[in-house]
Design brief:
Layout (H helix, E strand, L loop, with lengths): L3 H14 L10 H5 L4 H10 L2 E4 L7 E4 L2 H8 L5 E2 L28 H9 L5 H20 L7 E2 H18 L6 H12 L10 H24 L6 H7 L8 H32 L1 H9 L4 H12 L4 E6 L3 E3 L2 E3 L4 E5 H4 L35 H18 E6 L4 E2 L8 E3 L1 E6 L2
Parallel strand pairs: 2-8
Antiparallel strand pairs: 1-2, 3-5, 4-12, 5-8, 6-7, 9-12, 10-11
């Protein structure tokens, strides 16, 4: 890609030149190239409940305004997450190989099964986990090369996230990269960098299933413990799950605990580099770390969309949405809605209400690990500011090819110690 200013200008011209009725924002290349912004800007202004009649995933509705997204996300009576209808992503299809999981369940099943695993992210458990997260963050940062280029995604973001994942599942630390790999394989597009084919994707996910089936048998035969697998194996609402549903929930927990944290850790470095005045503000006042973390999660929006399926006809903001229609909530757009968030395209670490965002969703499916994600970001930045004068971005980042994950595959940086 060329100069970022030129690319952004060209993207804006293209977004406003095309007929509105033919606009299709569900294109992974738009997100990989970071040129999706003007398309969503136009939809919010001109057609916030927009119907796309044809895409690689069939027809779908785009919900792009903050309050409209909240309205859909909290109306599970009309807008269903059920796997049998296609699940929670735009490319899910009714009757295909969607794994049943918490996020593809409606009440009452969702409520009962979610309650089984929420203790692992309780306030008390997070307090117990914080010293371990801090110790690991320090060890990771103390081993990065000073004054030399390295990949922040691999050396820091993935490393901290993978260690936390290993703790949540109580698996050996030497297996931590396998957990990240399986999460990436599940969310990847075959042929675009992670796996080469659907067959390879299926084979690696089968390997993941076999690994976790062994863990299930071990944990089910032992006394209940505080890790996620033991919770599922002994929980009243989950111990009778089918192998497919168990694996679906394992994948959900892997992806949920990986993507938001990992990509926000990298996103914070990118955002603070692009906004040096905000970095100076942070260095001068470390008490701004919690609000910086929340602002990063909004500004980054690590999960770009979540999908629902209408189970009844409904008139919504003057549009007729029919039963069976695919409805896509674009969190990445809602988080840039100027009617709700002042100067939403700006990265401002001391906003009055920094946690007012949609990155964790709304309603019954709101991300249960949100506080754990925030904790890891807060701890890593507390440790960064103790050690480093600067984290300098070297070139443009490489981004994920996905309409679901807004993340980074590579972020070259150079760090300098505090004097």
């Amino acid at each position: 890609m060329g100069d970022s200013t030129t690319v952004a200008s060209e993207a804006r011209a293209a977004a406003y030149a095309m007929p509105l009725e033919s606009m299709n924002v569900a294109q992974p290349a738009l997100f990989r190239d970071d040129v999706h912004w003007p398309y969503f800007e136009r939809l919010r202004r001109e057609d916030p409940v927009h119907y796309c009649p044809a895409s690689a995933f069939g027809p779908y509705w785009s919900i792009t305004k903050y309050h409209d997204i909240v309205a859909v996300d909290t109306n599970h009576q009309v807008f269903s997450s059920a796997a049998s209808l296609g699940g929670f992503v735009i490319n899910g299809r009714p009757g295909d190989s969607n794994f049943p999981m918490l996020i593809t369940m409606d009440p009452p099943q969702h409520t009962q099964k979610r309650r089984t695993v929420t203790p692992i992210v309780s306030a008390n458990n997070l307090r117990l986990m914080e010293p371990l997260i801090r110790e690991r963050a320090g060890l990771i940062l103390d081993t990065v090369p000073i004054g030399e280029e390295f990949d922040w995604v691999d050396r820091v973001a993935i490393e901290l996230t993978s260690m936390t994942l290993a703790t949540l599942f109580d698996v050996p630390l030497e297996d931590r990269r396998r957990l990240i790999r399986w999460s990436d394989v599940y969310t990847s597009w075959p042929g675009f960098g992670v796996v080469d084919s659907v067959e390879q994707q299926r084979a690696e996910l089968n390997e993941c299933a076999e690994y976790f089936n062994v863990l299930w048998k071990e944990r089910a035969a032992a006394e209940p413990q505080g890790d996620l697998i033991s919770m599922l194996a002994h929980g009243e609402a989950t111990r009778g799950m089918s192998p497919l549903e168990y694996f679906g929930n394992v994948i959900l927990l892997l992806v949920g605990a990986n993507d938001s944290t990992r990509n926000s850790i990298s996103g914070s470095v990118f955002a603070l580099n692009r906004n040096p005045q905000q970095y100076a503000k942070l260095c001068a006042n470390h008490a701004l770390i919690p609000s910086m973390v929340a602002e990063t999660i909004r500004w980054q929006t690590p999960v770009a969309h979540v999908r629902r399926t209408a189970v009844a006809d409904i008139e919504f903001q003057g549009k007729k949405i029919c039963a069976g229609d695919k409805v896509v909530m674009w969190y990445v757009s809602g988080n840039r809605d100027a009617d709700v968030i002042d100067s939403p395209d700006d990265y401002i670490i001391d906003r009055p209400r920094p946690r007012q965002h949609l990155s964790f969703g709304a309603g019954i499916h709101r991300c249960m690990g949100s506080r754990l994600a925030e904790l890891q970001l807060q701890v890593i930045w507390e440790e960064i500011l103790k050690r480093f004068q600067t984290i300098e971005l070297v070139g443009e980042p490489q981004r994920s090819y996905s309409t679901f994950v807004r993340g980074y595959t590579r972020l070259l940086v150079r760090v300098r110690h505090r004097n």
